[in-house]
Amino acid sequence: MPTKPIYAAGLDLGSRHTRLVICVLEDGRLRLVGAGAVESQGWSKGRIADQQAVTESVIAALRAADSPAGGLQSVVVGMGGATVRGSNGRGVLELGYLQEIQQNDVHRVIERASRVQLMEDRMILQLFPQDFVVDDHPGHCDPLKMLASRLEINVHLVTASIQEHNAIVGAVNAAHLAVEESVFEALAACYAAVLPENRREGIAVVDIGAQSTELVVYFGDAMHLATSVRICGDHFTRDLAQGLCLSFEDAELVKMEFGCALAQHSPGNILVELPTPDDRQRREVQRSIVNRILAARAEELFRHVRGEFARVGMERALTGGVFLSGAGARLPGLCDVAEDILQCQTRFGITEGIRDWPLELNDPAWCTAAGLAMYSAKLKEHTELQKEQATWIGRILK
Q: What does DSSP say about strands 137-140 and 271-274: parallel, antiparallel, or unpaired?
Protein backbone atom coordinates (compact mmCIF):
# COMPACT_ATOMS: atom_id res chain seq x y z
CA MET A 1 0.00 0.00 0.00
CA PRO A 2 1.56 3.35 -1.03
CA THR A 3 2.32 5.69 1.85
CA LYS A 4 0.50 8.99 2.05
CA PRO A 5 2.75 11.90 0.95
CA ILE A 6 3.94 14.25 3.68
CA TYR A 7 3.57 17.87 2.60
CA ALA A 8 5.54 20.73 4.11
CA ALA A 9 4.36 24.24 3.22
CA GLY A 10 5.49 27.75 4.04
CA LEU A 11 3.21 30.79 3.75
CA ASP A 12 4.84 34.23 3.53
CA LEU A 13 2.11 36.80 4.20
CA GLY A 14 3.89 39.82 2.78
CA SER A 15 2.19 43.20 2.75
CA ARG A 16 2.83 43.49 -1.02
CA HIS A 17 2.82 39.84 -2.16
CA THR A 18 1.58 36.59 -0.61
CA ARG A 19 3.90 33.68 -1.45
CA LEU A 20 3.29 29.98 -0.84
CA VAL A 21 5.85 27.17 -1.22
CA ILE A 22 4.65 23.55 -1.09
CA CYS A 23 7.14 20.68 -0.79
CA VAL A 24 6.88 16.95 -0.25
CA LEU A 25 9.14 15.14 2.19
CA GLU A 26 10.90 12.18 0.53
CA ASP A 27 13.58 10.13 2.31
CA GLY A 28 14.53 13.03 4.54
CA ARG A 29 14.78 15.51 1.66
CA LEU A 30 12.43 18.20 0.39
CA ARG A 31 11.19 18.36 -3.18
CA LEU A 32 9.23 21.30 -4.54
CA VAL A 33 5.76 20.42 -5.84
CA GLY A 34 4.21 23.89 -6.08
CA ALA A 35 4.83 27.59 -5.59
CA GLY A 36 2.55 30.56 -6.11
CA ALA A 37 2.61 34.31 -5.58
CA VAL A 38 -0.26 36.80 -5.70
CA GLU A 39 -0.68 40.45 -4.80
CA SER A 40 -1.57 40.89 -1.14
CA GLN A 41 -4.74 42.62 0.01
CA GLY A 42 -5.81 43.82 3.44
CA TRP A 43 -2.50 45.19 4.79
CA SER A 44 -1.62 48.68 6.02
CA LYS A 45 1.76 49.74 7.41
CA GLY A 46 2.83 46.15 7.96
CA ARG A 47 -0.28 45.15 9.92
CA ILE A 48 -3.55 43.45 8.99
CA ALA A 49 -6.29 45.98 8.28
CA ASP A 50 -8.83 43.62 6.63
CA GLN A 51 -8.67 39.99 7.76
CA GLN A 52 -11.12 38.76 5.11
CA ALA A 53 -9.00 40.30 2.32
CA VAL A 54 -5.92 38.55 3.70
CA THR A 55 -7.84 35.24 3.66
CA GLU A 56 -8.75 35.80 0.01
CA SER A 57 -5.06 36.40 -0.78
CA VAL A 58 -4.18 33.08 0.89
CA ILE A 59 -6.84 31.25 -1.14
CA ALA A 60 -5.53 32.87 -4.33
CA ALA A 61 -1.97 31.80 -3.45
CA LEU A 62 -3.22 28.23 -2.95
CA ARG A 63 -4.70 28.26 -6.44
CA ALA A 64 -1.55 29.82 -7.94
CA ALA A 65 0.62 27.16 -6.29
CA ASP A 66 -1.59 24.40 -7.72
CA SER A 67 -2.09 22.99 -4.23
CA PRO A 68 -2.51 19.18 -4.13
CA ALA A 69 -6.23 18.45 -3.91
CA GLY A 70 -7.03 17.55 -0.32
CA GLY A 71 -3.34 17.05 0.43
CA LEU A 72 -2.36 20.35 2.01
CA GLN A 73 -3.98 20.82 5.38
CA SER A 74 -1.52 22.97 7.31
CA VAL A 75 1.26 25.53 6.85
CA VAL A 76 3.97 27.28 8.79
CA VAL A 77 3.30 31.00 8.55
CA GLY A 78 5.72 33.90 8.82
CA MET A 79 5.31 36.90 11.12
CA GLY A 80 7.24 40.14 11.06
CA GLY A 81 6.82 43.89 11.20
CA ALA A 82 7.23 46.43 13.96
CA THR A 83 5.16 44.36 16.42
CA VAL A 84 7.91 41.70 16.62
CA ARG A 85 10.79 42.42 19.01
CA GLY A 86 13.70 40.52 20.50
CA SER A 87 15.24 40.66 23.97
CA ASN A 88 17.65 38.63 26.08
CA GLY A 89 16.41 36.54 29.00
CA ARG A 90 17.76 34.20 31.67
CA GLY A 91 16.60 31.17 33.59
CA VAL A 92 18.05 29.78 36.83
CA LEU A 93 17.57 26.32 38.36
CA GLU A 94 18.95 25.41 41.79
CA LEU A 95 19.56 21.66 41.86
CA GLY A 96 20.16 21.65 45.65
CA TYR A 97 23.26 19.45 45.71
CA LEU A 98 25.93 18.26 43.30
CA GLN A 99 24.29 15.93 40.82
CA GLU A 100 24.26 14.90 37.17
CA ILE A 101 22.23 17.20 34.91
CA GLN A 102 19.36 15.37 33.25
CA GLN A 103 17.19 16.27 30.24
CA ASN A 104 14.35 17.13 32.61
CA ASP A 105 16.58 19.74 34.28
CA VAL A 106 17.29 21.33 30.89
CA HIS A 107 13.56 21.50 30.17
CA ARG A 108 12.90 23.06 33.56
CA VAL A 109 15.52 25.80 33.21
CA ILE A 110 14.27 26.66 29.71
CA GLU A 111 10.72 26.84 31.05
CA ARG A 112 11.88 29.24 33.77
CA ALA A 113 13.59 31.44 31.18
CA SER A 114 10.25 31.71 29.37
CA ARG A 115 8.50 32.97 32.52
CA VAL A 116 8.99 36.66 31.85
CA GLN A 117 6.68 39.54 32.69
CA LEU A 118 5.35 40.78 29.36
CA MET A 119 3.47 43.96 28.61
CA GLU A 120 -0.20 43.78 27.69
CA ASP A 121 -0.85 42.33 24.20
CA ARG A 122 2.58 40.62 24.10
CA MET A 123 3.33 36.92 23.67
CA ILE A 124 6.48 34.83 23.24
CA LEU A 125 6.72 33.90 19.58
CA GLN A 126 9.96 31.90 19.84
CA LEU A 127 12.73 31.20 22.36
CA PHE A 128 16.34 30.59 21.31
CA PRO A 129 18.91 29.19 23.79
CA GLN A 130 22.28 30.95 23.62
CA ASP A 131 24.40 29.09 26.18
CA PHE A 132 24.24 27.30 29.54
CA VAL A 133 26.02 28.36 32.72
CA VAL A 134 27.02 25.38 34.86
CA ASP A 135 28.00 26.38 38.42
CA ASP A 136 29.01 29.88 37.26
CA HIS A 137 31.00 28.54 34.28
CA PRO A 138 29.41 29.95 31.07
CA GLY A 139 29.71 28.92 27.42
CA HIS A 140 28.29 25.37 27.49
CA CYS A 141 26.18 24.25 24.51
CA ASP A 142 24.95 20.99 26.05
CA PRO A 143 25.14 20.51 29.85
CA LEU A 144 23.73 16.95 29.90
CA LYS A 145 25.57 14.50 32.21
CA MET A 146 27.68 17.29 33.74
CA LEU A 147 27.91 17.48 37.52
CA ALA A 148 26.50 20.69 39.01
CA SER A 149 24.41 22.15 41.82
CA ARG A 150 23.19 25.16 39.80
CA LEU A 151 22.15 25.44 36.15
CA GLU A 152 21.47 28.67 34.26
CA ILE A 153 20.57 29.44 30.67
CA ASN A 154 20.85 32.59 28.58
CA VAL A 155 18.17 32.89 25.89
CA HIS A 156 16.97 35.29 23.23
CA LEU A 157 13.21 35.79 23.30
CA VAL A 158 11.24 36.91 20.26
CA THR A 159 7.92 38.46 21.28
CA ALA A 160 4.98 39.61 19.18
CA SER A 161 1.58 41.28 19.42
CA ILE A 162 -1.12 38.83 20.50
CA GLN A 163 -3.75 40.71 18.51
CA GLU A 164 -1.67 40.68 15.32
CA HIS A 165 -0.77 37.01 15.80
CA ASN A 166 -4.43 36.07 16.27
CA ALA A 167 -5.39 38.05 13.15
CA ILE A 168 -2.81 36.15 11.07
CA VAL A 169 -3.87 32.75 12.43
CA GLY A 170 -7.55 33.63 11.95
CA ALA A 171 -6.97 34.68 8.32
CA VAL A 172 -5.15 31.42 7.53
CA ASN A 173 -7.73 29.28 9.35
CA ALA A 174 -10.51 30.95 7.35
CA ALA A 175 -8.75 29.65 4.21
CA HIS A 176 -9.25 26.11 5.64
CA LEU A 177 -5.60 25.70 6.65
CA ALA A 178 -4.23 24.94 10.11
CA VAL A 179 -1.21 26.90 11.36
CA GLU A 180 1.49 24.48 12.54
CA GLU A 181 3.63 27.28 13.93
CA SER A 182 4.31 30.98 13.40
CA VAL A 183 7.96 31.90 12.77
CA PHE A 184 9.84 35.20 12.67
CA GLU A 185 10.30 35.95 8.96
CA ALA A 186 13.98 36.84 9.08
CA LEU A 187 14.68 33.56 10.89
CA ALA A 188 12.87 31.68 8.10
CA ALA A 189 14.98 33.48 5.47
CA CYS A 190 18.10 32.50 7.43
CA TYR A 191 16.86 28.90 7.53
CA ALA A 192 16.66 28.79 3.73
CA ALA A 193 19.77 30.76 2.75
CA VAL A 194 22.39 29.98 5.40
CA LEU A 195 23.71 26.52 6.18
CA PRO A 196 24.18 25.82 9.93
CA GLU A 197 27.94 25.37 9.53
CA ASN A 198 28.20 28.83 7.94
CA ARG A 199 26.88 30.49 11.11
CA ARG A 200 30.01 29.65 13.14
CA GLU A 201 31.89 32.83 12.31
CA GLY A 202 28.85 35.07 12.69
CA ILE A 203 26.24 35.95 10.08
CA ALA A 204 23.30 38.31 9.74
CA VAL A 205 20.19 38.18 7.56
CA VAL A 206 18.45 41.43 6.61
CA ASP A 207 14.99 40.70 5.19
CA ILE A 208 13.82 43.83 3.34
CA GLY A 209 10.09 43.79 2.68
CA ALA A 210 7.72 46.40 1.29
CA GLN A 211 6.43 47.63 4.67
CA SER A 212 8.89 46.13 7.16
CA THR A 213 12.53 45.09 7.46
CA GLU A 214 13.56 42.31 9.84
CA LEU A 215 17.02 41.39 11.06
CA VAL A 216 18.59 38.38 12.76
CA VAL A 217 22.20 37.90 13.90
CA TYR A 218 23.74 34.50 14.62
CA PHE A 219 27.12 33.57 16.05
CA GLY A 220 27.59 29.82 16.04
CA ASP A 221 24.30 28.20 17.03
CA ALA A 222 23.28 31.14 19.22
CA MET A 223 20.95 33.89 18.09
CA HIS A 224 22.16 37.24 19.40
CA LEU A 225 19.61 39.56 17.85
CA ALA A 226 16.12 39.48 16.35
CA THR A 227 14.58 42.85 15.62
CA SER A 228 12.86 45.10 13.11
CA VAL A 229 14.33 48.16 11.40
CA ARG A 230 11.98 51.03 10.62
CA ILE A 231 13.21 51.57 7.03
CA CYS A 232 11.66 49.33 4.36
CA GLY A 233 11.21 49.06 0.60
CA ASP A 234 8.31 51.52 0.45
CA HIS A 235 10.54 54.27 1.89
CA PHE A 236 12.68 54.11 -1.25
CA THR A 237 9.57 54.47 -3.41
CA ARG A 238 8.13 57.34 -1.37
CA ASP A 239 11.42 59.23 -1.60
CA LEU A 240 11.26 59.00 -5.40
CA ALA A 241 7.57 59.97 -5.42
CA GLN A 242 8.27 63.11 -3.39
CA GLY A 243 11.54 64.02 -5.08
CA LEU A 244 10.24 63.59 -8.64
CA CYS A 245 6.57 64.62 -8.09
CA LEU A 246 5.20 61.21 -9.06
CA SER A 247 2.42 58.98 -7.79
CA PHE A 248 3.51 56.06 -5.61
CA GLU A 249 2.74 53.57 -8.39
CA ASP A 250 4.74 55.54 -10.99
CA ALA A 251 7.64 55.95 -8.56
CA GLU A 252 7.69 52.18 -8.04
CA LEU A 253 7.94 51.68 -11.82
CA VAL A 254 10.84 54.14 -12.07
CA LYS A 255 12.60 52.43 -9.15
CA MET A 256 12.25 48.96 -10.64
CA GLU A 257 13.23 49.96 -14.19
CA PHE A 258 15.96 52.57 -13.68
CA GLY A 259 16.87 52.55 -9.98
CA CYS A 260 20.26 51.77 -8.44
CA ALA A 261 21.58 52.33 -4.93
CA LEU A 262 24.98 53.48 -6.27
CA ALA A 263 24.74 57.13 -7.34
CA GLN A 264 28.35 57.39 -8.52
CA HIS A 265 27.79 54.79 -11.26
CA SER A 266 25.26 56.95 -13.14
CA PRO A 267 26.64 59.35 -15.78
CA GLY A 268 24.94 62.74 -15.70
CA ASN A 269 24.10 62.72 -19.41
CA ILE A 270 21.67 59.75 -19.20
CA LEU A 271 18.05 60.87 -19.04
CA VAL A 272 15.02 58.93 -17.77
CA GLU A 273 11.53 59.62 -19.12
CA LEU A 274 9.10 59.92 -16.24
CA PRO A 275 5.53 58.59 -16.39
CA THR A 276 3.16 61.51 -17.02
CA PRO A 277 -0.59 61.83 -17.65
CA ASP A 278 -1.68 62.01 -21.29
CA ASP A 279 -2.60 65.69 -21.02
CA ARG A 280 0.79 66.69 -19.60
CA GLN A 281 4.00 67.51 -21.41
CA ARG A 282 6.64 64.77 -21.37
CA ARG A 283 9.14 65.04 -18.48
CA GLU A 284 12.69 63.77 -18.21
CA VAL A 285 15.19 63.65 -15.35
CA GLN A 286 18.82 62.69 -15.08
CA ARG A 287 19.22 59.08 -14.02
CA SER A 288 21.90 60.18 -11.55
CA ILE A 289 19.22 62.15 -9.64
CA VAL A 290 17.05 59.03 -9.36
CA ASN A 291 19.98 57.04 -8.03
CA ARG A 292 21.14 59.73 -5.60
CA ILE A 293 17.70 59.67 -3.98
CA LEU A 294 17.82 55.87 -3.65
CA ALA A 295 21.46 55.86 -2.48
CA ALA A 296 20.69 58.26 0.39
CA ARG A 297 17.93 55.97 1.69
CA ALA A 298 20.08 52.83 1.26
CA GLU A 299 22.86 54.40 3.31
CA GLU A 300 20.39 55.34 6.04
CA LEU A 301 19.01 51.77 6.12
CA PHE A 302 22.40 50.16 6.62
CA ARG A 303 23.53 52.75 9.14
CA HIS A 304 20.53 51.64 11.22
CA VAL A 305 21.53 48.00 10.68
CA ARG A 306 25.10 48.77 11.76
CA GLY A 307 23.72 50.43 14.89
CA GLU A 308 21.81 47.23 15.73
CA PHE A 309 25.01 45.20 15.26
CA ALA A 310 26.86 47.54 17.62
CA ARG A 311 24.08 47.25 20.21
CA VAL A 312 24.83 43.53 20.67
CA GLY A 313 28.60 43.85 20.23
CA MET A 314 28.67 42.31 16.74
CA GLU A 315 29.89 45.29 14.71
CA ARG A 316 32.80 44.14 12.50
CA ALA A 317 32.43 40.64 13.99
CA LEU A 318 30.36 38.96 11.26
CA THR A 319 33.07 37.26 9.24
CA GLY A 320 30.46 34.90 7.78
CA GLY A 321 28.86 37.90 6.08
CA VAL A 322 25.46 39.51 5.67
CA PHE A 323 22.67 38.03 3.56
CA LEU A 324 20.02 40.28 1.98
CA SER A 325 16.60 38.71 1.41
CA GLY A 326 13.13 39.98 0.60
CA ALA A 327 11.80 41.73 -2.49
CA GLY A 328 13.40 45.00 -1.39
CA ALA A 329 16.86 43.44 -1.74
CA ARG A 330 16.45 43.31 -5.54
CA LEU A 331 17.46 46.97 -5.93
CA PRO A 332 20.74 46.98 -7.90
CA GLY A 333 23.75 48.14 -5.95
CA LEU A 334 22.23 47.43 -2.54
CA CYS A 335 24.81 44.74 -1.73
CA ASP A 336 27.63 47.17 -2.51
CA VAL A 337 26.19 49.85 -0.22
CA ALA A 338 25.72 47.28 2.58
CA GLU A 339 29.27 46.00 2.20
CA ASP A 340 30.70 49.51 2.31
CA ILE A 341 28.81 50.57 5.44
CA LEU A 342 28.79 47.28 7.36
CA GLN A 343 32.41 46.45 6.45
CA CYS A 344 31.74 42.77 5.83
CA GLN A 345 30.97 40.54 2.87
CA THR A 346 27.39 40.91 1.64
CA ARG A 347 25.44 38.68 -0.73
CA PHE A 348 21.86 37.83 -1.69
CA GLY A 349 19.95 35.25 0.31
CA ILE A 350 19.17 32.46 -2.15
CA THR A 351 17.31 29.25 -1.25
CA GLU A 352 19.42 26.12 -0.82
CA GLY A 353 18.47 22.52 -0.09
CA ILE A 354 15.16 22.01 -1.95
CA ARG A 355 15.16 19.62 -4.91
CA ASP A 356 13.59 20.74 -8.21
CA TRP A 357 13.87 24.38 -7.14
CA PRO A 358 13.55 26.31 -10.45
CA LEU A 359 15.99 29.00 -11.55
CA GLU A 360 13.24 31.62 -11.71
CA LEU A 361 12.74 31.24 -7.94
CA ASN A 362 16.43 31.90 -7.20
CA ASP A 363 15.31 35.26 -5.96
CA PRO A 364 15.69 36.88 -2.49
CA ALA A 365 11.92 37.47 -2.49
CA TRP A 366 11.25 33.69 -2.22
CA CYS A 367 13.72 33.04 0.59
CA THR A 368 11.27 33.49 3.48
CA ALA A 369 8.55 31.24 2.03
CA ALA A 370 11.12 28.53 1.30
CA GLY A 371 12.52 28.74 4.83
CA LEU A 372 9.03 28.42 6.29
CA ALA A 373 8.49 25.25 4.23
CA MET A 374 11.81 23.87 5.54
CA TYR A 375 10.72 24.66 9.09
CA SER A 376 7.46 22.80 8.43
CA ALA A 377 9.44 19.78 7.21
CA LYS A 378 11.49 19.83 10.42
CA LEU A 379 8.29 19.76 12.49
CA LYS A 380 6.86 16.91 10.37
CA GLU A 381 10.07 14.85 10.72
CA HIS A 382 9.96 15.30 14.49
CA THR A 383 6.32 14.21 14.59
CA GLU A 384 7.02 11.13 12.44
CA LEU A 385 9.96 10.19 14.68
CA GLN A 386 7.75 10.41 17.77
CA LYS A 387 5.14 8.17 16.08
CA GLU A 388 7.81 5.59 15.20
CA GLN A 389 9.13 5.57 18.77
CA ALA A 390 5.60 5.20 20.17
CA THR A 391 4.92 2.28 17.81
CA TRP A 392 8.22 0.61 18.74
CA ILE A 393 7.47 0.89 22.48
CA GLY A 394 3.96 -0.43 21.86
CA ARG A 395 5.34 -3.54 20.13
CA ILE A 396 7.62 -4.21 23.10
CA LEU A 397 4.77 -3.89 25.60
CA LYS A 398 2.49 -6.31 23.72
A: unpaired
